[in-house]
Every structure is written in structure tokens, then in C-alpha cells.
């Protein structure tokens, strides 16, 4: 099988999700020799560097990718995220705005732009609300692309509740989530946890709580939604990061009868399928 930038990118994404960082070094080094001017390969290299915590070097590599291809959507988006994750960044906002314009149908681009704008004092509260509403209306289209997948609720059994934990690869679990699961009503609830991007130690912590744990990392969003729908959940609770890989398209497929958002986002997700928000 002949190597290609697309295959290298897919390999790195899969490896980072599973924590195989050391195994990616050799194939990525070979790819940079074979495709020295490929922005996609440079993005993959930056992805690995960021996962290893070397974010300054990741930024340097992404700048090199943009120098070679100014309108490369992945490089533009990734550099904007890296810069904005360090604090308010006008350059980060500008890059994310360009990435969103280059990929107008990708909601993740718009989400990261909204988060970066919120950090940078660029808009008034009223302007931010207007932009958030505009994002929600645009993102509504995702839900209309696919039919509902939810299974009907069956009587005479415990309530089936699922939690979708999704974020940047290797992220530790939120202690509040562990507390929530530890103190669940075991007689009334049948709990499943669906994870994407959670570190291996986090998976062990979840399994120690005696809940069903399902790793959605390798699955496409459509397949992940089908996997969740097959469990016939009554309620799916989203606990997703505002940046990284929240995988909101899974929710857009309506894999449960009721979907609620909890933690991670400062306001509505802009997804019609998510009709409830848990907050204090």
C-alpha cells in the first residue's frame, strides 16, 4: 500500500486518540521525508507535537504549513486553536475566522471561533449573542441531514442514561464527572459511558465505577451515533469540551430520545437535537 498524506493524517489521528504517541514517530518522520512540502503532513506532525505537550514547536510547524499553503483549512484552523488556547489572541481569532470561511459547513470551525472570540474582548455581549444565534441557525442544517435514530422507550425497567465524554485526546477526566457517576442511583438508573479522547487512566477510573464504557474514538460520527442508538437510551447527557474534538455531529443524529448538555460550553450548543441544558 503506497503512503499518501491523507493516509498519514488518518494514522496520526487514530494513534493520538489511542495514545500510541511513540509508535507514530517513525512513520511520521518518513512521511516528512517523502512529502516535505505537504501541509497535511505538517499538520499531522503538529498534532503529534501538541499531544505530547510541545505546543510551541507545534505552532512553529503549523506556521510552516501555512507559509506553503496559506488557505489550507486544517493548518489554518489548527494554528488558530493553538494560539487561542494560550489566552486571548487576535491572530488566533483571525485565523479561526478564515478557517471557518474556508470550511463553512464544518460546525467545529464555527465553535472554536466563537470560543476564541469570547476570550478576546472583540465583541460586545449583544454582538456575541447575535453571532451565537447565527451559528445555531446555521448548525441546524446538520440535524436535518439525517433522520432520528432513537429507539423507543420500554416500560418496566430502569431508566437508561448515557454520558458522552468527548474532548482533546489524552485529556484527564473531570473530577465532577467521576463524582456524578460514583453517586448515581444504581437502582433507578442503568448507566453507559461513551468516550472519545479520554486518556487510558480515565478509562480505568470509569470502569472502576462499574459502568459500561464504550470507546467511540475510532468510529465516524455517524457510526458512533448508531452505536449509541443501539443501546436504546432514554437520556443522553453531553459532557464535551468547547474546543478539541467535542463531536457534536453525534448529537445531531439524535441517538437518544432526550439529549441534554452539561458542562463544557458557556451557552446553547446550537444543535436542535439538544433540547435541554443542565446548569445551576
Structure commentary:
This protein is an alpha/beta fold. Helix content is 52%, strand content 15%. The protein has 12 helices and 6 strands. It has helices spanning 5-18, 21-34, 39-51, 55-68, 73-85, 90-102, 107-119, 125-145, 175-182, 200-208, 221-229, 248-252, and strands at 159-171, 189-198, 212-215, 235-240, 258-262, 276-278. The protein has a 6-stranded parallel beta sheet with strand order 3-2-1-4-5-6. Helix 1 (5-18) packs antiparallel against helix 2 (21-34) and helix 5 packs parallel to helix 7. The longest helix has 21 residues, at 125-145. It is globular. Mean pLDDT is 80; it is low at 141-147.
End-to-end Cα distance: 53 Å
Question: What structural category arises from helix and sheet content?
Answer: alpha/beta
Instruction: Give the low-confidence spans.
Output: 141-147
* Overall shape: globular
Widest sheet: strand ordering: 3-2-1-4-5-6
Report the count of strand segments: 6
Query: Average pLDDT, to the nearest integer?
Result: 80
The number of helical runs is 12
Characterize the largest beta sheet: strand count, sense, and whether it forms a barrel. 6 strands, parallel
- Percent strand equals 5-15%
Query: Rounded to an integer, what's the Rg over CA atoms?
Result: 19 Å
Listing every helix as H and every strand as E from the N terminus to the C terminus, the arrangement reads HHHHHHHHEHEHEHEHEE
Helix amount, in percent? 40-55%
List descriptors.
15% strand, globular, six-stranded parallel β-sheet, 280 residues, alpha/beta
Amino acid at each position: 500500500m503506497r503512503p499518501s498524506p491523507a493516509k498519514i493524517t488518518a494514522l496520526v489521528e487514530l494513534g493520538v486518540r489511542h495514545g500510541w504517541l511513540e509508535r507514530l514517530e517513525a512513520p511520521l518522520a518518513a512521511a516528512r521525508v517523502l512529502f516535505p512540502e505537504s501541509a497535511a503532513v505538517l499538520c499531522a506532525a503538529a498534532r503529534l507535537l501538541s499531544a505530547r505537550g510541545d505546543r510551541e514547536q507545534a505552532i512553529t510547524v503549523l506556521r510552516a504549513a501555512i507559509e506553503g499553503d496559506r488557505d489550507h483549512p486544517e493548518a489554518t484552523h489548527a494554528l488558530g486553536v493553538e494560539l487561542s488556547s494560550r489566552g486571548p489572541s487576535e491572530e488566533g481569532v483571525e485565523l479561526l475566522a478564515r478557517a471557518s470561511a474556508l470550511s463553512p459547513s464544518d460546525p467545529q470551525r464555527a465553535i472554536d471561533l466563537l470560543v476564541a472570540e469570547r476570550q478576546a474582548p472583540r465583541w460586545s455581549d449583544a454582538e456575541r449573542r447575535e453571532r451565537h444565534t447565527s451559528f445555531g441557525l446555521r448548525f441546524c442544517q446538520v440535524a436535518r441531514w439525517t433522520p432520528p435514530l432513537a429507539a423507543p422507550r420500554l416500560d418496566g425497567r430502569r431508566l437508561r442514561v448515557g454520558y458522552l465524554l468527548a474532548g482533546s485526546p489524552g485529556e484527564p477526566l473531570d473530577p465532577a464527572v467521576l463524582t456524578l457517576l460514583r453517586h448515581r442511583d444504581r437502582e433507578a438508573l442503568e448507566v453507559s459511558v461513551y468516550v472519545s479522547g479520554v486518556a487510558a487512566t480515565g478509562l480505568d477510573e470509569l470502569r472502576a465505577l462499574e459502568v459500561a464504557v464504550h470507546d467511540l474514538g475510532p468510529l465516524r460520527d455517524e457510526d458512533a451515533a448508531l452505536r449509541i442508538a443501539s443501546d436504546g437510551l432514554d437520556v443522553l447527557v453531553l459532557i464535551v469540551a468547547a474546543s478539541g474534538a467535542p463531536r457534536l455531529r453525534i448529537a445531531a443524529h439524535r441517538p437518544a430520545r432526550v439529549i441534554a448538555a452539561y458542562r463544557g460550553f458557556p451557552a446553547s450548543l446550537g444543535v436542535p437535537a439538544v433540547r435541554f441544558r443542565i446548569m445551576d
